[in-house]
Amino acid sequence: GAVVSQHPSWVICKSGTSVKIECRSLDFQATTMFWYRQFPKQSLMLMATSNEGSKATYEQGVEKDKFLINHASLTLSTLTVTSAHPEDSSFYICSARDRRGLAGSRGTDTQYFGPGTRLTVL
Amino acid sequence: GQNIDQPTEMTATEGAIVQINCTYQTSGFNGLFWYQQHAGEAPTFLSYNVLDGLEEKGRFSSFLSRSKGYSYLLLKELQMKDSASYLCAVRDPNRDDKIIFGKGTRLHILP
Question: Rounded distance, CA A120 to CA A89, Å?
Fold first, then answer.
């Protein structure tokens, strides 16, 4: 399958600081990337959809000024958690849409996840 | 509304077969995914069904019936490493092709 990397894999920061998380598609171009958050023993929650060259679209209840998303190229999207607070501590996972192989009736329009970033805000 | 249902937990024995069911009710449909997620890790892609029928990939198979809004993931020759959560997810074209996840099924494998 396709490879999506995420950096850093874990980060600890002080309350009030900002943290940037990078998501890269390593062997394919992703016009669309997604950012999820997952709290312990809970389901994945979609935060926002990142489209290359345009503004991200945020899910209801997600503050766009707090979670800044930039999709500067077809292989890179970044999520910046601004003025982080302890309640922002979570597992942040990016995902990239792989639309290669769409020709034919059984195209594989799949979505692959990065390994995740565990954020702890003290 | 959007609704994806799957059992919360299941238990099976090493070497056996287990079937994890998923039913969905979404405003639109553009493919169903199964992912495996081990504790503390990100989900890994298992399968993608967009047409009715069975897709087999090694020990894992996934089935889809669009008319019934139903899918299952079949795991054969269970191994201890298969202990994980299995997430059913549907892509909805009426929601900008976003993938909507179920809450996941936690599978416990007993020796």
Answer: 5
Q: How far is CA B34 from CA A118, B55, B85, in A?
A: 23, 12, 10
Amino acid at B5: D
Please answer yes or no on whether A43 and B101 come within 8 Å at the CB atom: yes
pLDDT for res A24: 95
Check whether B99 has a pLDDT greater than 50: yes
Chain segment B28-63, per-residue pLDDT in tens: 999 999 999 999 899 999 999 999 999 999 999 999
Listing DSSP states for A9-27 in one string gives SEEEE-TT--EEEEEEESS
Choosing among A5, A44, A119, which should be mutated to test the B contact, i.e. which has the most B CBs within 10 A?
A44
Contact B87 A113 (CB under 8 A): no
Between B67 and A42, whose confidence is greater? B67
d(CA A57, CA A64): 9
